[in-house]
């Protein structure tokens, strides 16, 4: 399992050891799956490219490995796709439960890197609240409903932020 914040800025190399660029965002479909990594290409101009998640051969602690740069496609925006910071950004989006309870602002996502399935959402109430109460992690297997003003997630268990939260800890991120 991987979080976007730990993946952001990681260099991407092909199997010949050539630096292709670095991860600058993730693309998330309406179905709640991470479909592509968004790369900032090396060089002064730094063009953006899509890298399908299926083209990644390995997520390491110090870089992302791909077979070939042939799987890169120049970045283009899709109307039914979201990112964390670029097109239709989800970062800092209001997040509500299906019952209408405000859960916080989206800060990060946890996803299974092999298949792109998002399994958790890390939420914040702001810097001071994060320090005193901690961030909340909502774990769900259901895709969110993403609207113009808010994101609705299915909430059964939560961890952090509240004394009564009962969710077990998300699995630790292993090497690669």
TrEMBL record:
User: Which Gene3D superfamilies does the annotation name?
Assistant: PRC-barrel domain (2.30.30.240)
Tell me the domain of life: Bacteria
- Which intervals hold domain PRC-barrel? 4-71
Record's protein name: Uncharacterized protein YrrD
């Amino acid at each position: 399992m991987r979080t976007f914040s730990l993946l952001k800025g990681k260099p991407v190399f092909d199997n010949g050891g050539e630096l292709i660029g670095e991860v600058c965002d993730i693309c998330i479909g309406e179905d709640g799956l991470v479909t592509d990594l968004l790369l900032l290409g090396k060089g002064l101009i730094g063009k953006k490219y899509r890298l399908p998640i299926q083209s990644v051969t390995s997520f390491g602690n110090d870089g992302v490995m791909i077979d070939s740069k042939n799987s890169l496609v120049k970045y283009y925006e899709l109307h039914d796709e979201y990112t964390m910071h670029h097109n239709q950004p989800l970062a800092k989006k209001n997040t509500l439960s299906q019952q209408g309870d405000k859960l916080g602002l989206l800060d990060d996502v946890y996803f299974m890197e092999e298949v792109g399935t998002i399994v958790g959402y890390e939420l914040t109430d702001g810097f001071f609240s994060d320090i005193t109460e901690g961030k909340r992690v909502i774990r769900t297997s259901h895709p969110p409903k993403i609207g113009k003003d808010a994101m609705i997630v299915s909430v059964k268990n939560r961890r952090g932020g509240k004394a009564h939260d009962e969710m077990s800890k998300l699995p630790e991120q292993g090497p690669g």
